[in-house]
Design goal:
Blueprint (H helix, E strand, L loop, with lengths): L48 E14 L2 E14 L4 E6 L5 E8 L2 E8 L4 E4 L12 H5 L4 E6 L5 E6 L15 E6 L6 E4 L4 E8 L5 E8 L6 E7 L5 E3 L7 E6 L5 E8 L2 E8 L6 E2 L6 E6 L5 E7 L6 E10 L5 E3 L3 E2 L13 E3 L1
Antiparallel strand pairs: 1-2, 1-24, 3-4, 4-5, 5-6, 7-8, 8-9, 9-10, 11-12, 12-13, 13-14, 15-16, 16-17, 17-18, 19-20, 20-21, 21-22, 21-23
Length: 348
């Protein structure tokens, strides 16, 4: 049964979930680049990647394992095949991420080394795996995003288990999870739509989030939510077909993936409003992330003739007239088939 266009699919008794726009991993890009240096196997057989030096610590996901690019090398940080969608806390000391299991997913916390700290959701079920009882007593949560003060995490989550026969999942809502004490707080819901990845505004008073309507005409778009009033509206200047929002460290720019004419690239526009500018031309690029100093933009893209996503970076330049532009993209990995829906997260 189909819910939101290109968002989630389910089957019973075990629901198979395709998170927001996971099908875009099948796109083919149109711009080449330099491949990373040949890897040297680690003792456990996993190959690190070595290349150019990057500032800070950049997280990405491969086969359910969270990797970290630090200085000139990327290697697995933690995960057993079930870890996805990592997000650094604002102070860079903790990582929120999603752990997927049979018929449900949880939002967890780890420290900067990957050591477990806490579980923020309780979506699982004691019912046997693959059973119909498990479907009716479990829920999903995706896309953790930290508030600027580091005391809560926004997620796209099901507030209630499935209902009906056959089971139909509740739409994904925006929910705020407290890091220490308190109850989860739903802040946005629309039974005719699904929500996806979000990012807090610089002052923490609202969120930019991805919303997709239901039905064949449903299309993802970026919306702005005011947390004090609950009012929401489409982000001015962001075209339909936009998703994967990312905010610059100085709070001035919003980068996002946008799909136009069968091609997907990274664009940006001022958070205060304005006209979007295109930053990439690969034709199959998504998951932007700003470097901690705002001078680089990382993203995931598919190279011509290849089946999966790899990591790329580009230099950002701010013109005298206040316009943003990007230099020639540089490819940092080759053939890793990274998980595009997990995106990227960059911390000092």
């Amino acid at each position: 049964m189909t819910l939101a266009n290109a968002m989630l699919r389910y089957c019973s008794p075990r629901r198979l979930v395709l998170p927001l726009l996971l099908l875009l991993t099948l796109l083919i890009a149109g711009c080449g680049g330099e491949a990373a240096a040949p890897p040297t196997p680690l003792a456990d057989g996993v190959a690190p990647v070595r290349g150019e030096a990057l500032p800070g610590r950049l997280l990405f996901v491969r086969q359910g394992v969270i990797w970290q690019w630090r200085d000139r090398e990327a290697r697995p940080l933690f995960g057993d095949g079930t870890a996805f969608q990592p997000a650094w806390a604002p102070d860079g000391t903790r990582i929120a991420y999603v752990a997927r299991a049979n018929s449900f997913s949880e939002v967890l916390l780890a420290d900067a080394s990957g050591r477990p700290l806490a579980q923020l959701t309780d979506n699982g079920s004691p019912a046997p795996p693959n059973s119909i009882d498990r479907v009716y007593t479990s829920r999903w949560a995706f896309y953790p995003a930290w508030s600027p003060d580091g005391i809560r995490v926004a997620v796209a989550a099901q507030v209630r288990p499935p209902t009906g026969d056959p089971p139909v999942d509740e739409s994904l809502e925006l929910v705020l999870l407290p890091i220490t004490t308190g109850a989860p707080l739903p802040v946005y819901a629309d039974p005719a739509a699904q929500v996806g990845r979000s990012v807090f505004l610089p002052d923490g008073t609202g969120l930019i989030f991805t919303r997709a309507g239901s039905g064949p005409a449903g299309q993802q778009a970026l919306y702005r939510l005011d947390l004090s009033s609950g009012a929401s509206e489409a982000v001015s200047g962001a075209p339909a077909g936009s998703y994967d929002p990312a905010r610059s460290p100085d709070g001035r720019w919003l980068a996002f993936a946008t799909r136009q004419g069968g091609r997907t690239d990274i664009a940006a526009l001022p958070l205060a409003g304005g006209t979007p500018v295109r930053l990439t031309s690969q034709g199959a690029a998504r998951a932007p992330a700003f470097a901690p100093d705002g001078r680089l933009l990382a993203f995931l893209a598919v190279a011509p003739g290849e089946p999966g996503f790899d990591l790329w970076v580009t230099e950002l330049q701010l013109g005298a007239d206040g316009t943003l532009s990007a230099g020639a993209p540089r490819r940092l990995t080759s053939g890793l088939a990274l998980d595009a829906d997990s995106g990227l997260s960059w911390a000092p």
